[in-house]
Amino acid sequence: MFTPGSKYFLGLTGLSLVSAVLYTIFVNPSDIGAVALFGLLLAGALVAGFSLFTRDGDAETEAEAVEAAAYAPTPSFWPIVFALGAAVVLLGVATHPIVFVLGIAVLVGGGVEWTIQDWAERASADAEFNDLVRHRAIGALDYPGLAAVGLGVIAYFFSRIMLAASKDGASVIFIVVATAIMVFAFLVATKPTLRGKSVALVVTAGALLLAVAGVATAISGERSELVEYAEADHYSKTHRECGEEEGKYYDHEANNTVSLRSAVLATVFVEDGKIRAQMIGLEKDVDTITVPRSNATNILFRNLDEEDHRLVVNLGKAVNDETGKEEELGTCTQLAGKNQEQVLTLNIKKPSSEEQGYSFTVPGAEGEIKVVVP
Amino acid sequence: MAIIERPGSDTTPAVVTASQSLGAVKRPVETKGWKEWLFTVDHKKIGIMYGVVAMFFFIVGGVEALLIRLQLAAPNGTILSADQYNQMFTMHGTTMVFLFAMPMAAAFANYFLPLQIGARDVAFPRLNALSLWLLIVGGLVLNASWFLGGAADGGWFMYAPNSGPVFSPSNGVDYWILGLQIAGVASLIGSINLIVTVLNMRAPGMSLMKMPVFTWMILVVQFLLVFSLPVITVALVLLMFQRSYGATFFDVSQGADPLLWQHLFWIFGHPEVYVLILPAFGIISEVLPTFSRKPLFGYPFVVFSGASIGLVGFGVWAHHMFAAGLGPVSVAVFSVATMAIAIPTGVKIFNWLLTMWGGKVWYTTAMKFAIGLVMLFTVGGLSGVTHSVAPSDTQQTDTYYIVAHFHYVLFGGMVFGLFSGFYYWWPKVFGKMLNEKLGSWNFWLMVIGMNLTFGPMHILGLQGQPRRMYVWTEARAGEGMFNLAFWNLVASIGSFILAVGVLVFLINVVYTARKGKASPLDPWDARTLEWLTTSPPKAHNFDRIPVVHHLDEFFHRKYEEDTATHTMKKIAEGEDLVRAEEEAAEKDIHLPGPSYWPLVLAIGVGILGMGVVYGVPIMVLGGAIVLFASYGWVLEPSVAEDIDFDPPSTDGSTKEIAPLG
Amino acid sequence: MSHIDPVLTKEKAIDTVTPVKSSRRRIVTALAGVSATVFLTGCATNAPQDTFVPKGPNAKIIDDLNMIVFPIAGVVGVIVLALATYIFMKFRDKGQAIPAQSHGKPYVEITLTIVPALILTVVGVFTFRGIFDLAETKDTELIINVTGQQWWWEYDYPVQADQGISQPIISSGQLVIPVGTKVLLRETSRDVIHSYWIPALNGKKDAVPGRIHLLRLEADEPGIYAGQCTEFCGLSHANMRMEAVALSKEDFAKWVAGQQKAYTAPAAGTLAAEGETTFINQCSRCHQVNGIKDANGKPIISAPDENVYSGAAPNLSHLMSRNTFAGAMFDLVNEECRADVWNAKSEEFGAKYLAGVSEDCLNEKDLRAWLRNAPAMKPMYADPSNLEKSNGLYRGMPNLGLTEDDIDKLVAYLLTLK
């Protein structure tokens, strides 16, 4: 069963396996040497595999192959694809890595297709049978590959459409599309007469529609809120202004975050220009909030006033190592509009003391809430 | 399935025969010795191998359990360190659930499901072999951790964030993830295989409602697996990325909520409980009618209660989380749903009892184990009802009361069911009877050991001893003769009695293999189709595919009702029926050939998994083997003989799809 | 615990499944009787974590539910098992003919479905009420933050003027609460999931990092109630214990005053004063003692987050007012004094507890062993060579390599932390 060519390559595979394992154990598992040896192993295994499958050196099949070769080979466009791949690779070297990778993909794909077609044509003298042979060999590569590309394209276009549609619109689109697919699948499954051309027609039409809509929405861009979110960038330091000023960048869409419901230690309100606070489990106003030390703690800020406000936490002063100057410590939330909420997550490592009291304040509102860290 | 080449006409030049048309590595043909087992795709051989593997891991898990009980026999135990103890209980749970209970159920399903529905094999024989090898590879990866820096130590539930890289720094959890992932793939493949088999390959005349209950329960279990395994797969992938590639799915400092893991785990984990118990229910639903000489009482009720247990089982996962802070509304909903699931379970108990009512009950060892299941499962079920009451559960969860509960359910329920199956079907599989006397010892030692081990745990738990503690202290054990120290000691002694019981079974197996007496073809006066063939069955199972007219077809071929007195009259012996089948044997029986590739592919997957721990080169190697094996699999030729086409060609075509390739 | 016996006795009823010969039947009946008696008296007395001895209204709600579901389960169990036993005996193969092949009677099936459903509906109604009663938090009188960390609990009492708490109190080892007061624990965790459980006061509730879970406790009378972490939390899970101390309202006020007392440094020249220096050099990196000052009179603020992965270490101000240390794994008082406090009558309990740990009562053996080599006493991730994945930070207290001399001084100093 092992043909002469395959024996050589199987030997090579075995040898490189041994040396690769030894190298990994005794020298270094993660340098270029290991990669090279494993590469050799992979290459050897693949060539050995092909050698086995092509039955090279098998007297009986060689006789068939000779006979098969007497027939004129069928026309093939794989050489063209292969050449195109080579050109794209060169282009990629000059331009962009993505083009290069694409070229490699085309090159490898074309090469494999070409090899297998050539091999299959020598399988026997029966053209129909050879075609079957080719399909079986290539199908295992073709279908998963094409399916991956197809799914990627669908996912990309669909995501563009969903990002461009309004929030409610996206829900509607999702429901409609999902229902349509479900109904269609149900029809196909239950009505065998539907199969064939009509199905192909519907699928093609769907694919076209998706492609057109996808391209259109990719060009037109995402919906306005998303663009705004991206610009607002909650975490950018440059956007953090803890005073009374009206920042240009803030999250106008800030709203109740459900997942934080069970994790909020206290809520600070601004109402009628005054600040007040409530702690979880105690349904009355407090003027001091005790925050556990060294543990991330969420404080919810809710603005009930017309004007925009933000919550500021003052954590005393410390000498800045770089500048040598004493600086105020603390941080703040984004601005919140009327009836909006913002969360401040604090992890305070140092306890508060008489000299260095911590507090919550809201610029533009009266009062302060003391913060005690034991 | 495979495409097979029908020999062409003489006019085609250079005929390529089917067996060598594609692929140079030929299919193994007529293998003998060890090859017979390694490359087999025969569901019966695979079933036996499943059984052996599961039994091996049962012993491994049992030894782990004994070490745990030794450690806890006295206060401040020093047999194991804290670290070793944590590994021990993690691996005990994991091994027993994934490497004993599920494979043992798979062993029974593989062996008997095709026989019970009158099929020659499962729908995808090579995939069946792949399931087995993947399971073995998964089990090896999981247990390799013992020798590679320590096993997983986060409990079988592996709650985040304790399973993260900082809190569990050894590679044990990585092996755990990969082992379970691989074993999960095995189960998923197996379940799809069995679903297709049941739906498509039943003998003519066998409608779904004429199917044996064991097959029914296995079918329900496979659906549970298909819907629950993807969830644990996702959870394991998340955890793997967290541990190996720096993802933060369960990292609280990055804003994650650790309860995500609990939800994912229990959405899988609760249906998993029914995956474990339903096969045992199926087994005793065969055993009880056989030895009562009566059909199962309320067959449709048993079938539908099994299905509804499976369905409702998906809606009760949060009862494992009553103390996790879900909020009163969710707790109340899940509490009620959990109570609801007790109803179909109760229905089953009553049906089993009523099956025996008015019967002619024959107390063989198989029957004793079946009755043991009914009794012990009732106890476990009722303690289950007590913690469906969520406030009570907040006192009970994570204490030994829970340990007592699920061991009554899983040991008293599942394991007793499986042992009942051993004694019932042993003559079918090996052609020899297990010794009944040793069987009786086996049963009684297990009953006594089981009650001594897990009975006291009710008291331990209700009096406040939590689970998963590597030591307990005298200070919290209370006073009096029967304090917690006493009950801990009793439980430890009981566990060794239990172990002796299991040992007696192994002795029985060895004794039977050497000196056991040959079994008659129908030793139990059985009821279902698997007895309508020789023991052990031939490779092709049935000489003639039976045509089914009744539920309990085999019984109705042996007995006829006297229309006047309504009593059953024997009209044929089992031997006569089998001989009749042999005489009318079908000629063109096509069986799948053995294959190398399931084994090679499984090994490749194992190496690929190791790559997650040991780096990309190993992963590349594993991937290459997987790719190579997949190609070998796809291009594997058929070994069909010219006459083997099924059905024989009528239109002169030369190529066709063989359903059993 | 006698009221749960119906459930427990039925396990033993399994042993009655031997009805093969009548002589054996008698033995079995006798055995069943004996085992039933064993189970009737078979529970420990005075087990500190017994779930069937409620000592407060929350635990009582649960106990009331138990009183419904356990008897029901017990009665059903006895009926089913008795029925099963009857069937096994009655329908043994005595040579009777093969019975008619009847496939069941639907009306029996339907009855047997509806009856359990009705029983469970009753249980369900009571369960519903219990769940919502236990979730009540509106009338809370005292709040305590409870933070779990591998492998101890931190209790901090937020500033609450109406309870006399004007500065935050931070403690560990023992949770101190006033009796007859609705106390609300706000549980969270700094690392993995833990679970807070004082069986005599309420069921358990997990402490999950990043979340705050609420658990109500209320004790009816003064005393110490034991508990244990019940969510597996890693290496030393078994050693993560807790004790809840209930004091009368007056005693609680005294305790609060004691905890807010200012720090007094030990008199110069004493062994304790040398111990303070050792403490500042060795222990202050992680352990805070409120008010302690260095030689220049500057307050010393510990920085446990720079040494410990989870970010905190027990605050040791007023250490000697507690009876336990190291996550309540060890007693700070010796056995004699411990028994004295635990067994005190409820009217004497407060005074005895508030006396704190005197020199005579100190459990020096364990405390010294702990200071000498903590990881040897309690399994922890504190081996410096094994901290690669936690950025070199400890999980637990490392071995500080103190000399016996240092330990003498430290013990003398710690005794001053009243």
For this structure, what is the CATH homologous superfamily of the largest domain in chain C? Cupredoxins -  blue copper proteins
**Main sheet summary of chain C:** 5 strands, mixed
Portion in helices of chain C = 25-40%
Q: What would you call the structural class of chain B?
A: mainly alpha
Strand neighbour order, sheet with most strands of chain C:
3-2-1-5-8
Secondary-structure content class of chain C = alpha+beta
Overall structural domain count of chain C = 2
What is the helix tally of chain B?
Answer: 18
Mean pLDDT of chain C: 87
User: What is Rg of chain B?
Assistant: 26 Å
The number of distinct helices of chain C, counting runs of at least 4 residues, comes to 11
CATH-defined architecture of the largest domain in chain C: Sandwich
Chain pair sharing the greatest interface: B-C, 118 and 113 residues
Key terms for this structure?
heterotrimer, A: 374 residues, alpha+beta, Immunoglobulin-like, five-stranded mixed sheet, 16% strand, C: 418 residues, 2 domains, 12 strands, 37% helix
Task: Offer a quick outline of the entry.
The complex is a heterotrimer of chains A (374), B (661) and C (418). Chain B has 661 residues and is mostly helical. Chain B contains 18 helices and four strands.
